[in-house]
Design goal:
Layout lengths: L23 E5 L2 E6 L1 H4 L6 H29 L7 E2 L6 H20 L2 H6 L1 H7 L5 H23 L1 H8 L4 H53 L13 H11 L8 H24 L2 H26 L5 H6 L5 H18 L1 H6 L3 H53 L5 H22 L4 H16 L21 E8 L10 E8 L4 E5 L6 H8 L7 E6 L2 E2 L5 H6 L1 E4 L10 H6 L11 H10 L3 H7 L17 H13 L5 E5 L7 H18 L2 E5 L11 E6 L2 E6 L1 H4 L6 H29 L7 E2 L6 H19 L3 H6 L1 H7 L5 H33 L3 H53 L13 H11 L8 H24 L2 H26 L5 H6 L5 H18 L1 H6 L3 H53 L5 H22 L4 H16 L40
Parallel strand pairs: 6-11, 6-12, 9-10, 10-11
Antiparallel strand pairs: 1-2, 2-14, 3-13, 4-5, 4-7, 7-8, 12-13
Helix pairs in contact: 2-26, 5-17, 6-8, 6-10, 6-16, 7-8, 7-16, 8-38, 9-32, 9-36, 10-11, 10-16, 11-15, 13-15, 13-32, 15-16, 15-31, 21-23, 29-40, 30-31, 30-33, 30-39, 33-34, 33-39, 34-38, 36-38, 38-39
Amino acid sequence: MTKQKRTTIVIAHRLSTIRHADHIAVFQEGAVVEQGTYASLMTIPNGLFRSLSEKQEALLAQDKERMSVISSSAELRLPETSAEEVPASSSSKAQAQSADAVAEGAADGVEAGKAKAEKTPILRVVRMQNDQCLSLILMCIFSGCAAALSTYAFYEMTVVMNIVLRTDSSRMREDAVNLTIELGLYAVAIIVSFTLSGLFNGLAGSSLTAKLRSRGIAAFMRQEIGFFDFEENSATELTAFLAEKVDKVKIITAEALDLIAQLLGGVTSFLLVIVLYSDWRLLLAWMGLIVLQGVTMPMQTAFLLGGESTEQQKAGNASKSKMALAQASANNIIGEAVTGIRTVASFNLEQRFYDGYTSTAATVSSYQKKDACLGPFLIGLTNFIMFGAMGAIFYYSVWLANMEIVTFTKALAPMMAVMGVMVPMIKASSMSDLPQASAAAVKLFKIFDRVPLIDSLGESGMTLPKVDGEIELKDVKFAYPSAPEHLVCKGYSLVVPAGKTVALCGPSGSGKSTIIQLVERFYDPLEGVVCLDGVDIKTLNVRWLRSQLGLVSQEPVLFQGSISENIAFGKPAEAGEATTVEIEEAAKMANAHEFITQDLNEGYSTQVGQGGSKLSGGQKQRIAIARALIKKPAILLLDEATSALDNESERIVQAALDDIMTKQKRTTIVIAHRLSTIRHADHIAVFQEGAVVEQGTYASLMTIPNGLFRSLSEKQEALLAQDKERMSVISSSAELRLPETSAEEVPASSSSKAQAQSADAVAEGAADGVEAGKAKAEKTPILRVVRMQNDQCLSLILMCIFSGCAAALSTYAFYEMTVVMNIVLRTDSSRMREDAVNLTIELGLYAVAIIVSFTLSGLFNGLAGSSLTAKLRSRGIAAFMRQEIGFFDFEENSATELTAFLAEKVDKVKIITAEALDLIAQLLGGVTSFLLVIVLYSDWRLLLAWMGLIVLQGVTMPMQTAFLLGGESTEQQKAGNASKSKMALAQASANNIIGEAVTGIRTVASFNLEQRFYDGYTSTAATVSSYQKKDACLGPFLIGLTNFIMFGAMGAIFYYSVWLANMEIVTFTKALAPMMAVMGVMVPMIKASSMSDLPQASAAAVKLFKIFDRVPLIDSLGESGMTLPKVDGEIELKDVKFAYPSAPEHLVC
C-alpha cells in the first residue's frame, strides 16, 4: 500500500493494524461519529477512538509487563520438568494402514445392506405403507374393477353391431335403449371406480412421501460427520434429493400397484370374455400374446432402469453414473455460487461460474440426447413385435370364421375386448419418472440401511455418574475420510487435567481443530484412544458425551430464527426449555446483552437471517458464545472463540470466560493464535506437522532454547513493543497541539421519518425489480418458451409431423375394424380369405407406419427437450449471476432453493413445449382423421353430432387443467407465484431446514440438535402432505365429473346412431365408422390425462421468465455505465441511508 499508493479501505478491531492509516472513520449505531488521522483523533476529549486507544494501551502494557516478568524468570531458572520437547514422528506404513482402515470403514458403513436395498426396493417401500393398507387395497380394487368394466364394455361393442344388423326395427330400438342404459351404468361405474382409485392413490402416495422424508432426515441426522464430507452428501445434493426425488418413490408403489391392478383386472376380464363368449382356440392365441407382451414390456423397462450391467449406474448407484455425476457437479456449482455470492460478485467470478455450470449442463444434455435416440427405438421395436402378433391373431380369427368354426360374435369378441386391456398398457408406457423413482428408492434404502460409524441418535453406550472433565489422547493417529491419504494426527498424546485450562497453539494445519473434533467424537481416531475421565469415549453414549461439551467455533453457525431461540439451542432438551432469565444471563456473560437490547430494534426477538446474515461477525460470535455458556458444560471447547471480536469486546468476553473458568474450575481446551488469550492457561501444548512438539506452562515453554513457542512469543513481544512505542509518541504529541481541522466529531443523528422513507424506497425498489415483466411472464409462458427453441424448429416440426401422422393413422386403423366386421360377415369363404389377407397386410403396414412415426416423434421430442433444458439452465444461471446481492437475501432465493430449482424443476419446462406440441399434434391429427372418416364414410348428421362432442370435450378438458394449474383465483399461487402458495412455502421451509442442518452439521451434532431439526422438518413435511391429500380428494372428483359428462354425451350419440340405422337413414358401416374411429382419438386424450407434471412445469416456466425479466437493481454482468480513464481511488459517501432489502424496517446507515 505504501509503495503503490493504492486506495485501501480497512475494517479493523485491533488498532495496531491501522496505526499507519491516512484517515480513520469511527462508527457507532449506524453513523460516523469521528473522523481524522490517528494523532488527531487522540486529541478529542472523551472521544470514542481515544477511549478505545487508552483501553488498548492499558491492555498492551499488561502484556508487556507480564512477558518481561516471564522472560526474567526464565533466565534465572532451569527448564522445568513439566516442559517437554516432543519429537515429531511419522510413519508411511502407519499412514498407509490408516488410509486403508478409513476406506474399509467407509465401505462397510456405506454398503451395509446394499444387496437387500437393490434386490427388493419395491417390496420394502410397500412394507412401509402398512398404515395405508386400506387405501392401497381400495385403490387396487377400484382400479381393477375400472379396467375390468372397461374391457367388458368394449366387448359390448359386438352387441352394438348385432343390434345395428337387426332387421326388426322395433326390436332394434328396444335393444338399443336397453344397451344404452346398460352402457351408461358401465360408464358411471368406470368413472366412479377411476375417481375413487385416484383418491386412494393420492392419499397413500402423499402419506408415503411424508414418511420417506421423515425417515430420510432421521437417517441423515444420525450419520457421522464424515458422511457429509463427501460431495454427493452436500447440503445442496441432499436438499434437492429430499425435495424432489423422494416424492417420486410413490410411483413404484402406489402407481405401480395401480397399474398392476388395472392390468390384472383388464387381463382377467379379457380372458373371461374369451372363455364365455368366444372359443378356446382364440383363448390360447390371445394368452400367447399376453405372454409375448410379458416378455417385450421388460425390454422397455430395461431401458428405463438400465439393464443388468447398467442398473447400478442408473438406479442402485445413481450418484456414480456419468449423468448423475454431471448433474451433481452442476448442482454444486450453483450451490457454491449462491452461498458465496458476495465473494463471487466481489471478484467478478460470475462468468467463470456461468461457464462451469453451462459446461456441465451441456454434458447432462448430451447424455439425455443419447437416451432420446435409444429409447424410442427400443419402445418402437417392442410395439412392432406386439402389433405383429395381434395381426397374426386377427388373421387366425378370420380363418376360423372362414372355416365356420367360430361365429361373427365369437370372432370379434376378443378384438373388441382387447381395446380395454390397452388402457393400462398405455398408462404403463407413460411412466417416464420410473427411473428416477427407482434410483431415489435405492438410494434411500441404502441410507436407511447404512450403519453410521458414529450414531448421533443412538441410545447405546454408557454414561458416567459424575464428570470430572479429564481428557486424555493416547497415541492418536487420524486422517479425514474424504482425504484418507493425508494423515493429520501422527501419534498425538496429550492430557488435559480436570478443571484446568489447556491451550493448543501452532501453525495452521497442524491439527489443533482436529483435536476438538475428536473430543466431540465427530470422528474416531484410526489408532489410539480418546478418554474422558479414563474411559474411552467410544464406549460412551454419543448424545450424553456431547451434552457435557460446550463448543464455540472459529466460524460460528447460527440458524434461522430469533436471537433468543439461537441462544436457547444451547440448553440440552432433557434439561427443559431455556428461560428468559437464563438466556439473558448467558448473553451478559458473552458481552452480547448490550448490543442486543440497544442496537437491535426487536431485541432478543430479532431474526438472525439465514446463517446469521443479518448480524455482523462479532455479533454472531458473541451469540455463539452465549449459546455455549447457557449449556453449562463440564468441558468448554473454544476454537478461536474471540477471533471475530473487537479489542474491547475481546477483553470483556475473555475476562468473563476467565472468571467462569476460575470460579467453576471447568475443564477448558482453548485453540489460539494470539498468545494474549492464553497467558493464563494452566497448560499449553504446541503443535506442528501433526504432532505435539512442546508442552508446558507459559513460563516453562519460554525456557526452551530455540523453542517454537518461545519463537512465537518473542515475535509477538517485538510487535507489542512497537505498538507501545508508537502509542506513547502519539499520546505525547496529541497533548502538545490543538485539534486538527481534519479531525471531525460528527454528531450521531436519527430520524424516524427518514427511516420510514428509506424503508419505503427499499421496498419499492425491490418490488419494481422483482415484478418487472410479471404480466408478460404469466400471460404467455408457453409462447416464450417456444420462441427459445428456434434452433430446434426442425426437430419440433418433425416431431409434430410424425406425432400427427401416428395419431391420424391410428384413428384410420381403428375405422378399418368396420371393414374387418364386413369381412367376417361375408358368406363367400374364398372372398373372405382373400380380403382377410389383403386387410392383414394393410393393417400390418399401418402398424409399421404408426410405430415408426411414434418412434421418430419420441426421438425428436427428446432432442428438442434436452436442448431446451440445457438452454434454460444456462439462461437461468446467467440471470441468477446478474442479480444484486439483495436478491439472494430472501429465503426463496437461498442456495438450496435455487439448486433444487435448476436441478429438477427446470427440466420439466419441456413438458409445456415439446410434450404440449406433441399432444397438440396428436390431437389435431386424430381429430382431423376422425372428421375425415365421418365425412367420407359416414353421414353429415353424425358429423354434426360428433363435432358437438368435440366441442364439449374442449369445454370439459380445461376443467381438469384448471385443477392441475389452479383456477383463475389460484393460478398465481400454484404457477405464476409458486413461492407464495401455502404448499410451496411449506416445501421451501422444509428445504431450508435440511439445508441448514447439513451446512451446520457440526454445530447441530455438538449441541444435540438433531431431534429439533428432525421435528421441524417432519412438521413441515406433514404440512406439505396435508395439502397433497386435499388435492387427492378434489382432483379425482373433478376428473371423474368431466369424464362422466363426456361419456354421457358419447352414449347419447350412440343412441342417435342406432336411431338413424333404425330409420334406415344410415347403413351398418356408416353407423359404426365414428364409433370405431373415435377410439383412435382416445389415445392422445389418455396421454393428456397422464401429464401430471404440468403444474410444476408451468410454475417453473413462470418463475424462470420472471427471473429472466427481472431488472436487477445492480447488474453484475451489465455493460452499461461509464469507465474512468484513470482511477486515483478517492471514495466518498454523502448522506448515506441504508436498510437491507430483507429487513427494510431496520435502518443500518
